[in-house]
Amino acid sequence: MELLSIIVPCFNEEATVESFYARTSAVCAALPEIRVEYIFVDDGSRDQTLPLLKKLAEGDSAVRWLALSRNFGKEGAMFAGLEHARGDFVAVMDADLQDPPELLPQMLEAVRGGSFDCAAVRRVDRRGEPPIRSWFARQFYKVINKMSRTEIVDGARDFRLMTRQMVDAVLRLTEYNRFSKGIFSWVGFRTQWIETENVERSAGESKWSFFKLLVYALDGIIAFSTAPLAVASVLGLVFCVIAFFAIIFVVVRQLVWGGSAFGWPSLVCIILFLAGVQLFCVGILGQYLAKTYLEVKGRPIYLLRESGGGNTHEK
Ligand code: UDP
Ligand code: MG
Q1: pTM for the full model?
Q2: If you measure from the C-alpha of residue 77 to the centroid of ligand 2, how many angstroms do you get, rounded to a whole number?
Q3: Where are the domains of the chain?
Q4: What's the burial of 263, exposed, middle or buried (CB within 10 Å: 0-12/13-18/19+)?
Q5: Average pLDDT in the chain
Q6: CA–CA dist 118, 194 (Å, integer)
Q7: CATH 1.10.10.10 at 2-207+303-309, yes or no
Q8: pLDDT of amino acid 315
Q9: 166 vs 28, 171, 189, 273, CA distance in Å?
Q10: Nearest ligand, CA of residue 70?
């Protein structure tokens, strides 16, 4: 029989894991001709998440758990899950029930039919979200899609069900700076988009502050576009052209009217402005250099402390 692996990254999710498991396993029990395994990845939680996961694993041999050595972030936790999944199909879901498990049968059907390699969920509205955050999110998708050749779909959640072939492709992208919205799109394959309305978190709190989202957005742009690196060249060219005409203007003015020793205040403004532009461009270079530095170190994306559940009781 075929196997479906459900990967659930959990970070301080003591309030949600049990209801997640209850609701998801009810849906999975009705899935035709497939076995299901759960891979809960405890991403260095500081609450009762891990003991709860161990308890779930005791009650159901389909539950496996991985405990990372510290908090590596959702991207790292997801990668750990993907590496450990054994399924012919692999689904990634949030623990907070923002990804309704009721969509699983439909997703599985789409992928099993053979005309799609992946079924992914995108939300068509952003209800329940602060309006400023929604506005910034929309602008982010506009900007990144202009700058990157990889399509980043607005409203796409990380909730998706993939074939083994696609999972293996994703696992070949071993970059340290993981921006999975881009990675899933970059590997290609045929994706069926399932549209839903926004669902609010069942319990607990979102781990994303506005500032964290902003940094994540910038990381995404740096990971999937090199367009900012061209900013320096473009601005440099523009200022060369301006300078060329300015020189002609100054020379002509000197020859015709003479007495050119004026314009100090404007000179100060120009120097300040250009210094700003130069520092800005150096800053962009710095961002890419920093990412390259981390990438070159070749550090692992996550580290495992212990794991268990399922049939293998490894410690
Ligand atoms: N998560 C994680 N590590 C982190 C942050 C989040 O594994 O450092 C998990 C979290 O437990 C949840 C999922 O990623 O299952 C999505 O997190 P959250 O609900 O906070 O994000 P949001 O839905 O608000 O985007
Ligand atoms: Mg959530």
Answers
A1: 0.81
A2: 15
A3: 2-207+303-309, 227-297
A4: exposed
A5: 88
A6: 11
A7: no
A8: 38
A9: 22, 9, 7, 49
A10: 1
